[in-house]
Specification:
Blueprint lengths: L3 E5 L5 H15 L6 H13 L4 E8 L2 E13 L4 E11 L8 H15 L5 E3 L6 H9 L20
Parallel strand pairs: 4-5
Antiparallel strand pairs: 1-2, 2-3, 3-4
Helix pairs in contact: 1-2
């Protein structure tokens, strides 16, 4: 991890993070990447601490990874918890400890904010990411499936 800096994201970092978001969405097959909309959303997210936190990994000043966590209040889990919404490291920088460093930084800062749990969603077929998270102490919550419903008309 030589020469890699992990730091908190600020609203002014949108320009560095958007290309990484686009690469992640392309990698995961997520439809609907719209730079203008995502720039607005990212600015709103990073300008509103109650929504969550973000971190950037940079090597020699170039962005090579990011982590975005949203905050959720859970009665089941005893209060504030965080959910990893997006974690991505560019392919050429993987397997160098950058993802682990992003997660370690997030875990420390979130625990300091009194978050009791950290969760995420991983696609069923993404065994590489499942293995990564399992090595870092995450476990699948068996017996549950994610269900979603829109609250407003989708564009």
């Amino acid at each position: 991890m030589s020469g890699v800096e992990i730091r908190a994201l600020a609203a002014s970092d949108s320009g560095q993070v958007l290309p990484l978001i686009e690469a992640y969405w392309r990698h995961d097959g997520i439809a609907g990447y719209e730079p203008a909309r995502l720039r607005r959303q990212l600015h709103e997210f990073l300008s509103t601490p109650a929504y969550g936190r973000g971190w950037l990994a940079a090597r020699m000043g170039a962005a090579v990874g990011y982590l975005l966590c949203t905050l959720v209040y859970s009665f089941e889990h005893g209060g504030l918890m965080a959910e990893i919404d997006e974690l991505f490291v560019t392919p050429e920088h993987r397997r160098h400890g950058i993802g682990q460093a992003l997660l370690a930084t997030a875990r420390a800062e979130l625990a300091g904010r009194r978050c009791g749990w950290l969760q995420m969603q991983v696609a069923d077929g993404n065994t590489q990411s499942q293995g990564f998270y399992a090595r870092l102490g995450f476990k699948e919550k068996s017996g549950y499936r994610l269900w979603v419903a829109p609250l407003r008309a989708q564009a």
